[in-house]
Amino acid sequence: MSSHINILLLDDNHEFAGACCLLLQQAGYHVDLATTVEEGLKLGSSRTYQVALVDYRLPGMNGIEVMRRLKKENPLLEVIIITGHATLEMAVEAGRGGAFDYISKPFEPDKLLGLVTQLAQKFRGAGEQSGGAFDFVFDGAPVRIIGASSVMQQIFSLIDKIAPTESTVLILGESGTGKELVAKAIHAKSLRADKPFFAMDCGSLVESLFESELFGHAKGSFTGAYVTKHGAFELANNGTFFFDEIGNISLNVQAKILRTIQEKEFRRVGDTTTIKVDVRMIAATNLDLMQAVGDGTFREDLYYRISVIPLKLPALRDRRDDIPLLVDYFIKKHNYRRRGRDIQSISPDALDMLTQYNWPGNIRELENVIERAIVIEESLDISSASLPIHIQRGSEDTHREALSLADVERNHISKILKMTDRNITHAARLLDIDRKTLYDKIRRYNLS
User: I want to staple 198 with a disulfide (CB 3.0 to 4.6 A). Which of 62, 176, 236, 436 is the partner?
Assistant: First the structure.
């Protein structure tokens, strides 16, 4: 259990820090020691830690501020403040800043080990379902998917069932519903969890570069190919390969991907050598792939290869019961921006507005709204005045006319295009989609 917990210890007292480090290492924990703020922050940004022990009095920076900066890099980090001068004000400040607990010098070794053991037991339970969340560990860090609604509980149950298998999974859902997060959960609970997870955004590269990124290329295969390049498939060998927005891939590349899946081998661009590869494939898309098959833009044989187990994620408007839980989670995640004046709650009318809104951008949009509200709210409770105007008016619009999802998306894209003077790059950034997907939607909704 202990070997899965990474601890960062930051204390400028070399003798004390060395003793604590030895104590924790003898208990089986992995500990990285830093004796300066700069060194501690550098470690915090370069490695993933579950627990940090931070001295309250550090040269150049208060330990509470160090904690906030560390939690900015890793919101799920648990911090224990170490102090030689415990006061009520310090305890309150530490609690508001998000500290798990504090411990006063000098202390008995069992006291420190007891606190760390509590946290270790918490992280050991990661991966087990709780009433309103699905927890797992990815790349050494705890991750949580929020969802108490029945539809999300079914998703969690399905993840548990399909993760240990080698079956190919197709994750369906609108942009912002958490498709990559679910893909990571499947990998984390699979037999390949200690192997690579490689995610590729299929809409971010032009076709000429996509093949090289996917399969690699041989030295001299084209102008500028000065060295042999290892492709994504090769780097993901024995692990999981995640194709995000696979519906954006050209038919030519689709054929090569199909062959790689079937034969478990591929060739680098410009090379004749065959490379064997063993990867589990997970794909995701916000498109109707069956419609794409009918339109001739997606191969039918590839569709049936990747959709052995389809997993449909609901839009946020279809799981409104989860919105209060998500709001609470995002408040805790982004409270570090308040610099000591943490948001305590959200007003009932503001929560009602969030619940009534249709969320075309889904969970990603909700997180952005909460982060914005935390920054501009002057009190300790998020009020309706801190929400964007279109959400404040959304509850009124909800009762006017029931629009289809396609109508809502078409109207939203049209507004963004007008706002940006049809600057495709800017509009795609605001919509949080790639340019190719935006072009596809413009054609689909006849917005050209």
Answer: 236
Does residue 345 contact residue 206 with C-beta atoms inside 8 Å?
Answer: no
Spatial CA neighbour of 261 closest among 307, 315, 324, 327: 307
Asked if residue 356 and residue 332 are part of one domain, the reply reads yes
Per the structure block, which two tokens stand in for 217? 């290329």
In a 3-state reduction of DSSP, which class is residue 39? helix
Q: How far apart are CA 142 and CA 333, in angstroms?
A: 13
- Residue 269 sits in the same domain as residue 350: no
Q: Half-sphere exposure (CA, 13 Å, Cβ side) for 316?
A: 24
Helix (H, G, I), strand (E, B) or coil at 162: helix
Indicate whether 179 and 287 sit together in one domain. yes
Per-residue pLDDT of the chain (448 residues; tens, 9 = 90+): 444 578 999 998 888 888 999 999 888 888 999 999 999 998 887 777 889 999 988 888 888 899 988 887 776 788 999 988 767 777 777 777 788 888 888 888 888 898 888 887 766 554 444 557 898 988 888 888 999 888 898 899 899 999 999 999 999 999 999 999 999 999 999 999 999 999 998 876 666 678 888 888 777 666 666 777 888 888 899 999 999 999 988 898 899 999 999 999 988 887 878 899 999 999 999 999 999 999 999 999 999 999 999 999 999 999 998 999 999 999 988 887 777 678 888 998 999 999 999 999 999 999 999 999 998 898 989 999 999 998 988 644 544 444 566 777 888 888 888 877 788 888 887 787 888 888 888 877 888 6
Cα 216 from Cα 212, distance rounded (Å): 5
pTM of the model: 0.63
- Residue 359 CA: distances (Å) to CA of 176, 366, 367, 390, 394: 10, 7, 11, 11, 10
Count of structural domains, the chain? 4
Same domain, 110 and 247: no
Which CATH number goes with the domain that contains 431? 1.10.10.60
Same domain for 161 and 255: yes
Same domain, 58 and 163: no
Whether 151 and 292 share a structural domain: yes
Domain that holds residue 440: 405-444
Q: What is the CATH number of the domain that holds 351?
A: 1.10.8.60
Of 124, 144, 167, the one marking the end of a domain is 124
Shared domain for 206 and 350, answered yes or no, is: no
